[in-house]
Amino acid sequence: MADLRTAGPAGATDQGVAADAGGTRDGRFARVLITTGAAILTVVVVAAVFAPLLSSWGETVIDPASTLAAPGGGHLLGTDGNGMDIWSRVLYAARLDLGIAVAAVALAVVAGTLLGLVAGYRGGWLDDVLMRVVDIFQAFPTFILALAVAALLGNGTLNLVLTIAAVNAPAYARLVRAEVRTLRELPFVDAAVTSGASTAGILWRHLLPNSLTPVRVIAPLNCGWAMLTLAGLSFLGLGVSIPAAEWGAMISLGAADVVGGRWWTSVPPGLALLVCVLGFSLLGEGLQERADAKRR
Amino acid sequence: MRILRFVVRRLLQLIPVLLGVVVLTFLLVRVLPGDPVRTILGQNATEADAAAARARFGLDQPLWRQFLDYLRGLVTGDFGTSIQSGGSVGAEMALRVGPTLELVVIAVTIALVAATVLGVWSARRANRPGDHGIRVLALIGNSVPDFWLGLVLVLVGYSVLGWFPAPSGRVDPDTNLTPLTGADLIDAVLTGNGPAIASAAAYLVLPVLTLVVGVVAPLLRSVRASALEVLRSEPYAAAEAHGLPRRTLLYGYLLRATLVRLPSLAALVFGTAIGSTVLVEYVYSWQGFGQWALRGLLYRDYPVVQASVLMIALCYVVVFLVADVVHAILDPRVRI
Amino acid sequence: MLSIENLSVVIRRPGRQVAALNDITFAVRPGEVVGLVGESGGGKSMVARAIVGLLPDGSHATGRVVFDDADVLGMDEVALAAHRGRGVAICFQNPRGALSPTRTVGRQLVDRLVTHQNMPVDRAREAARELFEAVGIRSPQRRLDAYPHELSGGMAQRVMISLATGCAPGLLIADEPTTGLDVTLTREILRQFRHAADTDGRGVLLISHDLASIAEVCDRVVVLYAGTVVESGPAAQVLREPAHPYTRALLRSVPDVGGRPVVATAGAMPLLTRAPQNCPFVARCGHADDTCAARRPTTEPLAGGPDGWSLACFHPQAGPIGAEPEPVRAIPAADPAVGPQAKSTVLEIDDAHVVYRSRFGSGGHHALRGVSLRVAAGETLGVVGESGCGKSTLAKLVMGLVSPTSGAVTVAGHSLVRQPGRAHLRGRALRQARTRAQLVFQDPIGSLSPRRTVADSIAEPLRAAGLSAAERAARVAAVLDRMELDRSILQRYPHELSGGQAQRVGIARALVGEPDLIVFDEPTSALDVTVQAQILTVISEVTADKDRAAVFISHDLATVRGFADRVVVLYLGRIVEEGPVDVVFDHPRHPYTMALLASAPRLGGGTGAGGDAVELVKDLEEADATTGCPLAARCPFVTDTCRTQQQHLQPYGASRAACWRAPELAALTGKQATTP
Q1: Domain ranges, ordered by start, for chain B
Q2: Residue among A26, A29, A35, A144 with most chain B CBs within 10 A, to mutate
Q3: pLDDT at A102
Q4: From C114, which residue of chain B is nearest by alpha-carbon distance?
Q5: Chain C nearest CA to B264, separation (Å)
Q6: What end-to-end distance do the CA atoms of chain C give, in Å?
Q7: CATH of residue A112
Q8: Is the terminal CB of chain B with fewer CB neighbours within 10 Å at N or C?
Q9: Chain C closest CA to A116's CA: distance in Å?
Q10: Mean pLDDT to the nearest integer, C383-399
Q11: Is the minimum CB–CB distance between A125 and chain B shorter than 8 Å?
C-alpha cells in the first residue's frame, strides 16, 4: 500500500524491441516533461549551492530592526517574526530539503531493493516473513507511519533521513519482489540455472539489472514525495526546527500570520517547495511516459 | 455465498497483520523518548510523586505485563486512560472520529468522481492539448504541499475575500447544534437545524477543497493510465474493428475494464487522505481525530498514541478489504 | 466484392521510413476463400489493417481498396464505422487476448448482433446461442455467460469466429487463426471458415504464415514477400507446383511428415525503406541474374497456367518442388543404422512422476505420470505431443529445473536435483554437473538475459567451469563461427537480435561447454518459416555429433521426423507410443499417434494418413481424466476395458504402444499393417 503519489502503473519492463519513442507525439511530450523537470531541479541545486552569493542576508541572521517586515526595502521578500530574511532562507532551505529527501530515497532504494531481490528469488519462509513485515508496515498510511517514526527517532537530520527511508523502503521491497517473481519465471533465468550460474550470480548479474526498471521511474516521484513528507513533519514540529532553514518549518512559523493577511512569511517557502517537487514530478512522469512508449 | 466465503477468508488473513500492528504500536510507543509522567507533573514533582503516577498508569509493570493488560483492554474495548487529560481514551476517540470521517469521506467521494470523469476524458484524448493540460494540472496538484495549500486557501478565502469563516472550529457555536454523530453537517441535517447546516457547510468547503486537491491528482493519473491501457488493448481494438458504436464501446468495453482497478486505488487514496487530515485539521483547527492523535504524539501520551495509530491501521485495513471485495465483484478474473 | 488495386503503404516516423506494402493488387469474391501467405514482415497484417481502415499512425497509403464500390482509403469516420464489422470483420490472432475480459462472451456477441443485425436484445441472445452452436461450442447456453478467461484456446477461437460472423460481414478476415492451436484443432477451425464461405456466401481472407496448412481450405492463395505480391493463383496448383522461387523456398523450408528433407534458404527478408526498384527476393534467389537485380518484375499471368495464376518473376519455375536439383544443402534424414545399443547412456529417466502442487490446499496438476526413457550418446530422441501433454515438464525434468515427485533422473551419471533416496551434488560440483546438459529454448529472445550482451550470455556456462576470461573469449569466438554469426553480434543486446540470430546465440550457448546432452524444447516454433529451416539445418548438424545425445521436443511431427532416431509420443503425461522414428510414423500403433499424423498437413494437399484418418472426438481441454486409458474420452475405438483399466507399453515389432486395441487397430482403420 505504497503512497499513491509514488506508485505509477505497475510493472514497467522495457523488454522487447524498443520502439522509436523519440519522434512520436507522446515521445515529444515526454521529452518536454523530462527537460522541464531537469531544468527546475538544476535551478534548485544552483540556488542551494550558491545561496550565499544570491542573497545578502545569511541563513540565520537576525535583523532586529525589522520583524515581520513586508517585502521591499532591505528585504526582498520581507522578514519573518524573528526578523530573519525570507528570500535568503528560502534559498538556503533548498540544501536541507533536497539533501534529506535524496539521501532518504537513495537509502530506501538500496535497502528495499536488496530485501525484495532476495525475498523474491528465494521464496519460501524468508519471503513469507519479509512480506508479512512489509504488510504490517503498509497497514499504516505512509504519512502516519512517518509521524510515528519521527516522534520515535527524534528530529536530527540523520534521524529524518532514516525515518523517511524506513517509511519508503517497504514499497521498494514489494515492487522489486514482484518484479523478480515475474522475471524468475522467464526462460533466461532457467537458462542461467542450467548454465551452472550460482544463486548470487543469478541475482546480481541477471535479476538485479532487469528488476530496476520500475525503480528508476518511481524514485524521482518518490523524491518529491519525500520532500513533502519532510516539510509536513517540520510543519507539525516533528522535523527540522527553527532556526535552521527548511521550507516546512518556515511555513509553520508563518502559519499564524496568514489570518492577518501577512502572506510573505508562508507563501514564498511553500512556492519554492511546490516548484521543487514539481520538478521531480515532471521528471518522473516523463520517465514513466518514455518507459511506457518503449513497452508498446 | 461465494462472496461471503471470500470475505471470511480475507478476514482470517488479516489476523496476523492486525496482531503485528498491535505489537508494533505497543512497542513503538514504549521506545518513544521522553517521560510522559515528568511531562505532566512538571519540574517540581518529587520522585515519589512520579512513582505514584507511574503506578497509576501501570507503567511500573514489566513490559510483557503491560502488553497483556493492553491486549485484555483491547478485547473488552477499553483503550485505557489518557495520561494528559485523565479521561477515557475510548470516549475521547468516539468524539473525534465523526468530524474527521466527515471530512475524509466527502473529499474522497468528490475526488473519485472527478478523477474518473477527468481521467477517462483525458485518456480518450490522449496526447492532444486537452490531455496535456489535464496532466500538467494533475502533476501540479501532485506536488502541492497540502498544509501550505490550506494556508493559501485561508489567506484567499478568509483574509482577502472574506467568503469563508475563520479557520477554527467546524460550526458556528451560536447555532446551538446538538451533537449526535460528531459529523456536524449530518448532525445539523438530522436535527433540522437550518443555520447550522449553512454554517457547517461553509466551514467544510476549504478543508475539503484542500484534501480533494491533494487526493484527486494521483487518482486522476492512475485512472488515466488505466483507461489508456484499456484503449490500447487488443480487446478494445477488436471491438472497435468490429464497428461497435461509441456508446457501447464506452460503457461496455472501456468503463468497466477501467473501473476494475479503481477500488484498490480508492483505498490507497483513502490512506493518503487520512495522512493528510493530520495536517489539514491542524491548519483549520478542526479538532478532529487527526489533531487529537497528533497532540498525543507530541505529548507522548501512550494510550492515545496506541489507540489512534491502531484505529487508523484498522480503518485502513478494513477499507482495503472492502476494496478487495468490490474488485472481486467487478473483475470476473478474480477467483473468489 | 473486395478489390485491392495498387495499394502501397509507407510508414513514416521521424528517423526512419518503412515501405510496408508496394503495389499490392488482388481481389476476393463472395463465397471465395483466399489465403494470404507470407512470413512476418511480409505485410500480411498491414493488408488486413488497410481493409478495415485501421492503418497505424504515420501511414501514407496510395492506390485503392475498393469494397462494394467504395474506396476504404477515402472513407470518413462515419462511413468507416459502418464499414467495420458490417462490411469487413476480423477474427483476431490470439483470440483469448482479443476478447474483452470483463464482459461475458455472450454479451460481446449480443453487442455485435444488436449493432449490425438490428436485433432486439432478447432475440439477439437466442441468435447468439445458435451461432455458438454453429461454430461447434458444446453447451452453448452455458457458455454465453462465460468470461473469456474461462475458455480454452480452441473455445476462444470459436467464440472469436462467432463474434466476427455475428457482424454478418461481407468479408471475413482471419489473422493467423490457428496459431497456438494443436494440430487436431487446426483443421476443425479452418473448416469453419470454409463453411462461412460455402453456406453464407461470405468472402474469406485467411492470413497465415503456413501455406501448406491453409491451402486445403483455400480457393486461391496470394503470396507476399517484402510487401509485394510475388505469386497468386489457385491454391491446389500453387501448393503443388509453385512457380515463384520464393514460394518454392517457403514450401521447401517446411518439414513434412513424409520425411522429405528440409532445404534452407539463406538470408532474411529485407526491410524496405521505399518501393523496390528490383526483385526484392534477388539476394536470396538461386535463379537470380542481372535482370533481376536491375529491374523489378511486373506481375504477369503465368504462361500456360490455369486462369488467375500470375506471378512477378523473370524466371518462373515449373514442376513439383523437390524434383529440381537442390542447390543448397539439405538436412539429411536421420540414419537409422546408428542404433543406440552400443553407446553409453547419457540420459536415464526411470518411472518419473511430476506433480505440481497447488500452493494452497490439496490436489495439484499431475504433469508426468510414470515416464521412463533412456538416450544414448550419439542418439537423438524426438518427443511429440499436443500442448499440455507434459513436453515442457519433461524438458525441465531433464534439466533439473523441476524435481521428480517420484522416480529418478540421471544425466551423465549425476542427479541434478534432490531425489528421494539418492545422493546429489551440491555447490560448485552441482553447478558444473548442470552444464553437462544444456537446453535450447522455445522463446529465443526471452531465453537471453535482457541486460546482458550476447558475449556474456554465450559464455555463461563457461563461468561455472571456472575458465579465465581469455579462454572464455576464445571458446565463444569458436562457437560463434560454427553458428555462422558475425563477431559484431557479441556486443549486442537481445532486443537488438532477430529471432533467428537469437536462436543461433541460444544454440551457441548450449554448445560452448561441449555438453553431453542438449535438449531442444520447440526451438523453431517461434520463428518464421524460412528462418525455421535455417535453424533446423544448424540443429541437424549439432545433433549429428556422435558423442552427444539430444532430445528434440516438438508439437510438429514433421520436424521431429527430420532428425530424430527414435520418437516418443506423449499424451497427458504418459508415453503412449515409442519406437524408431520411421516405424512409428509409417506404422503407428496407437490411435492417438494416428490422429496426430492424420491432422498434420502434407505438401501437395491431403494429410498424413489420407482418407482413413483417425479423428478424435473432443478437444483436449474437454477430455475428463479417467481411471482407465487417458485417451478413453476422445478415442473413437474406446471399449469398456479402455475406460476402466490402463494398458502399459507393449512391444509391437520395433515399437511399443500402450493401447488395448492396438492389435486390431490396423483392421479397424482399414489400413494394411506391415510389421517391419
Answers
A1: 101-288
A2: A144
A3: 93
A4: B244
A5: 17
A6: 55
A7: 1.10.3720.10
A8: N
A9: 19
A10: 87
A11: no
Q: Do C463 and A193 touch (CB under 8 A)?
A: no
- The yes-or-no verdict on residue C222 having pLDDT over 90 is yes
* pLDDT (tens digit per residue) in B231-258: 888 889 889 888 888 888 888 889 888 8
User: What pLDDT sits at residue A256?
Assistant: 80
Q: How far is CA C395 from the centre of its chain?
A: 19
Inter-chain CB proximity C83 and B243 less than 8 Å? yes
Indicate the number of domains in chain A: 1
Residue A6 included in any domain:
no
pLDDT at B100 over 60: yes
Q: Is the pLDDT of residue C421 over 70?
A: no
Asked if the structure places residue A188 within a domain, the reply is yes
Q: Which domain holds residue A163?
A: 22-295
> Could you tell me if residue A239 is inside a domain?
yes
**Cell numbers at residue C641, please?**
476395458
Provide the pLDDT for residue B35: 66
The answer to whether the Cβ–Cβ distance between B243 and C103 falls below 8 Å is no
Q: Which residues, numbered 150 to 209 in chain A, qualify as contacts with chain C under a Cβ-Cβ cut-off of 8 Å?
A: 186-188, 190-198, 201, 205-206, 209
In which residue are the cell numbers 447555532 written?
A: B175
Among the partner-chain residues A236, A261, A277, the one whose CB lies closest to the CB of B279 is A236
Contact (CB<8Å) B17/A135: yes
Q: Which of A26, A28, A97, A147 to mutate to test the interface with B (most CBs of B within 10 A)?
A: A147
Say what the pLDDT of residue C338 is.
46
Q: The C-alpha cell of B53 is what?
A: 503516577
Looking at the complex, report in whole angstroms how far the Cα of residue B312 sits from the nearest Cα belonging to chain A.
7
Interatomic CA distance for residues A268 and A77, integer angstroms? 8
Per-residue pLDDT at C362 exceeds 80: no
C380 dihedral zone (left: phi>0; alpha: psi -120 to 50; beta): beta
Closest CA to B95 of B18, B34, B179: B179
pLDDT at C22 over 50: yes
Q: Report which of residues C271 and C221 the model is more confident about.
A: C221
Q: Pinpoint the alpha helices (H) of chain B.
A: 2-30, 36-41, 47-57, 63-75, 89-124, 129-143, 146-154, 184-191, 194-231, 234-241, 246-248, 256-259, 262-284, 289-298, 302-330
Mean pLDDT, all residues of chain A: 81
Q: Is the minimum CB–CB distance between A73 and chain C shorter than 8 Å?
A: no
Homologous superfamily assigned to B101-288 = MetI-like (1.10.3720.10)
Does a cis peptide bond (omega within 30 degrees of 0) precede residue A243?
yes
Whether residue A138 lies inside any domain: the answer is: yes
* Chain A residues whose beta carbon lies within 8 Å of the beta carbon of residue B18: 139
Q: Read off the C-alpha cell for C499.
A: 529471432
Q: Is the pLDDT of residue C518 over 90?
A: yes
> Chain-wide mean pLDDT for chain B?
84
Q: What is the mean pLDDT of chain C?
A: 83
DSSP string for residues in B271-285: HHHHHHHHHHHHHHT
| Interchain pair A187, C447: CB under 8 A | yes
Instruction: Please list every residue in chain A whose beta carbon sits closer than 8 Å to the beta carbon of residue C446.
Output: 15, 186-188
Mean pLDDT (whole number) for A159-184: 90
**A 24-63 residues inside an 8 A Cβ radius of B:** 25-26, 29
Could you tell me the sign of the dihedral formed by the alpha carbons of C390, C392, C397, C402, in that order?
negative
Q: How many CB pairs under 8 A join B and C?
A: 80
Distance from CA of C115 to the nearest CA of A (A): 31
Domains defined along chain C, listed by start: 345-557+570-575 (3.40.50.300), 587-676 (no CATH)
Predicted TM-score (pTM) of this structure: 0.81
User: Residue B199: pLDDT above 80?
Assistant: yes
Q: Label residue C518 left, alpha or beta by phi (over 0 means left) and psi (-120 to 50 means alpha).
A: beta
Residue B71 has pLDDT above 80, yes or no: yes
For residues C325 and C644, the model is more confident at: C644
B265/A4 Cβ within 8 A: yes
**Is C675's pLDDT higher than 50?**
no
Residue A85 confidence (pLDDT): 82
